[in-house]
Amino acid sequence: MSQRVFCGSDFGFRWTDDWYEYDGLPAEKAARQARDKFAKDLKTHGERPRKGTLGTQLISKGGIGSGRPHIEFHTKCYYVNW
User: What's the domain count of the chain?
Assistant: First the structure.
């Protein structure tokens, strides 16, 4: 079985010069839409995708050695198994 995860942080997080920008609701919506499109594409190729959500996850970015400040925030993540 294979799995692919779509997190809001992948669709709405962006580093700025000294901090970051993240607008959670549109990013989470984009992640869900990307998951749904991916599942639909799998179905057209004869797969049997199963969609689900991991709920709100704690995401960590930056930190030691990255040259960016360490930050943590919550975002929803969605998955599809096939």
Answer: 1
